[in-house]
Sequence to fold (283 residues):
Amino acid sequence: MVRAGLERHVVGATITSVEVLHPRPVRRYDAGAAAFAEALAGHRIVGARRRGKYLWLPLDDLDTGDALTAHLGMSGQLLVQPPGAPAERHLRVRLSLDGAAEGRELRFVDQRMFGGLSISLGGAVVPPEISHIARDPIDPEFDDDVFVARVRRSASGIKRLLLTQTLISGVGNIYADEALWRAQLHGERPGLKLTAKQVRELLGHVRDVMNEALAQGGTSFDALYVNVNGESGYFDRSLHAYGREGEPCDRCGTPMRRAAFMNRSSYFCPACQPAPRSARRAP
DNA sequence: ATCGCGACCTGGTTGC
DNA sequence: TGCAACCAGGTCGCGA
Fold:
């Protein structure tokens, strides 16, 4: 995982210099790219923490200090590289480190730049801009009861709820579709109408999907072992729903369907995952 | 207050 | 062959 990789390879190191190769990833730092670089230089990284797709590296003081925060967006990576390694195609920010073994660089690489880097002031424990993000279900402190209760209080569709970061993090469009397929639930089923048992089982499937993806190195973010092709290993072998429009359902053989959802797509089996009455078109 | 939609981005793929 | 249109998707801000 990224966080573990960072823990191993950059904690204890001092940032000696920062090179911002593209301004967009630091857009959330109001003072600008040059100030961003200047603010970081000379500070020591003393931790590596994660919540959802956010990572942050507390600087100098683990509990009350500032922190370098990173959001990986959909295509972002944080890599640890030897200084001589060739620049990645989408290398955006380079942080030179001193004090880590052999000298290293921490690199922010991001094709689409939905994510980015910033500096959070005095929020090393949990930076304020991250504090609203829920834990992910793999986190030992994730509270199943709270999640179940909140889902069952909401009239929103269950897929939308799975993507709501204040409820649960770490679940994207693909994992949501896979977990819903396994749970045999249609994404538009309102949270209100689900039983506690259904929500708990769904949560179990979410965990399974995430664990399997991690085990296959699919979304392995280990700083030193990121596979260039992202999630291809996982995608190739294990997807039952995502991207399978028209192909037979792996459970019942019915052709899978695709539906528009939040400017993107949902994939599901119309037989195993029947749409709720509320979502069906009038004849 | 809550909910749902569209914008934000780049580059690989597809279609003419 | 070249070029334009399309698509992917986590999050945030806005309007209903």
Notes: Residues 24, 73, 75, 90, 110-114, 154-156, 160, 262-263 of chain A lie near DNA strand B (CB under 10 Å from a C1'). Residues 218-236 of chain A have pLDDT under 50 and may be disordered. Residues 70 and 147 of chain A are 26 Å apart (CA to CA).
